[in-house]
Amino acid sequence: MIPRVQRILFWVMLLAAVIMAVVLIRLRERAHDRLLVAADNAVPTAPLNAPVEKIRLLVANDADGSLIPVERSFPMPKDPNARARVLLQKLVEEYSAPKSTHPIPNASGVDEVFLMPLAQQKGEMAVVNLDGAFVGAQPSGIEPETMTLLSMIATLHANLPQITEVRFLVNGQQKDTLAGHADLTRTYLASDTETAVRQ
After folding, report:
1. Mean pLDDT, rounded, for 141-166
2. What is the pTM of this model?
3. Is 91 helix (H, G, I), strand (E, B) or coil?
4. CA Rg value for the chain
């Protein structure tokens, strides 16, 4: 027989352990929420002394399924990863603007872009980590989803020609499709966009 005092002590310690676990889980969730808010508020920008450069955005046009070259001037960072992220963020801002030719209401867009050298050939692969809110705002359908991806790939390649392949993640995870149709499990080639670019 276990003495009554030991049983009471066991149950008190068990209750204390459960309460501590709940408190720790809640503190972890709060810290995670604070990190997400900080990440959402962190707008990709170039250093204040960065030179203003002309960038070429390939904006999707839903009316005829083409990519329209649009030039903008913007201070650009020197780091290629940051540069790629700023390029895509500016492209996404075009889509959230009034009278956009490819409207997507969420301007959060791209969390990060990682550039990696290709082992077997010249060039680099860009791994684009899309924001879940942007993906949720993406109009569903093979045509609009494909145009979103092609415009991102073409914009990266036009400004950073060393990028020859692009892969997409959503919130750091592989997802099967963008919004139910366009395949996100494959690697896209920059050459896939050539026929869609309006001359």
Report:
1. 87
2. 0.70
3. helix
4. 23
